[in-house]
Amino acid sequence: MSIKTFIRGSILVLISLLSFGATASPGYSTEEFSFISSGASLNGIISRPENNDTTSIVVMVHGYGPTNVVKGDWYRQIRSKFTSKGISVLTWDKPGCGKSEGEFDINQPIESSADEVVSAIAALKKSNEPGSDRIGLMGFSRAGWIAPVAISREPNVSFWISVSGTDAYENWGYLLRSNLELEGYSPSEIDTVYNEWIDGNLLFNSGGSYEQYLGTTRAFRKNEMVQKLSGQQFDDHEPGTDAYEAAHKMYLRNQKKYMSEGHLFDDENGLPIVVSDFDQVLKSVSSPVLAIFGDNDRNVDWRKTKELYESTIGANEPSKLSVKVFKGADHNLRMSKTGGYLEPRSKDYWNIPYAEGYYEVMVEWLCSNGFCSNTR
Fold first, then answer.
1. Which pTM value belongs to this model?
2. Which contacts of 32-39 are long-range, i.e. CB under 8 A and separated by 24 or more positions?
3. For the segment 2-39, what is each residue's pLDDT rounded down to a tens digit?
């Protein structure tokens, strides 16, 4: 496994939450909707109520990974539920995915993703799309960083639904610890692997040598669960061999690039900071917010996110923060057995039902805040 693949891949690992689900009769009309963001045309779809009685619009904010929105007809259940209440839904493919222009970047910066959201909102308003006077955001996982950054740039966003949202820090440390625990590792073993991950990140970011990195992260790199989570295997090469020298050069090349990007780490816990001054970004949110979590989430530390939301968004009265925690639900809000990161790799996983009332909570909250056609 290359240093580049492991370092960059491990820092932003999140499962995207996709709301699939067949509907015999969708009950809404859909057409393609494209807009320009950072000079690239992004292709998506907008679904509208069949009766054209649109009162508001939900802009879907993507989580981690590539998209297949248009061809895959994503978010069917959400589109069906929302349009039945007079709420249109817009979503699109990321750059380099589907018919969207540009190059796909699995580690796309949060700021760039937020730019897409702001551009989409601007396009809706410019085209006088019905409901564009009340546009809200809904996003999953990684979107917990993107949405509030977008709101800070477009403060007229009318509402935000955050599902399995994130705190200020990169989540891989929590994912690592919680999944090692599931696999039966002892607390001391978990601490060793986790601390080596932290130390390796700090060393890499501060210009530490390849030899230092190898010596600092030996237990981490050799851990079987780490290799499963990363999907790759790291091989130690004999010093002086061509393979060792090639790996050494790759380490230095990617270290230089990584350091030039200005990544920040918390002085106290050593965790990578994804959004600087994230608490201040959240405090600036003044529209209604619904935060949904599953208490069996092994990907994102939902408890810390919940506390952060309550101390920031919740302290801002106009936000009218509402929080719903589904008992037994995982990161994807499905009632899985373990909530572990590896479980969704099974094809049977996608037959597991969502938490009971998941869709209903969102619809009821939207209507109670006056965003539905029958409550306007």
1. 0.90
2. 32/70, 33/90, 33/92, 33/123, 34/92, 35/92, 35/119, 35/120, 35/122, 35/123, 36/119, 36/123, 37/115, 37/116, 37/119, 37/120, 38/102, 38/112, 38/115, 38/116, 38/119
3. 343 344 433 333 444 444 444 445 789 999 999 999 99
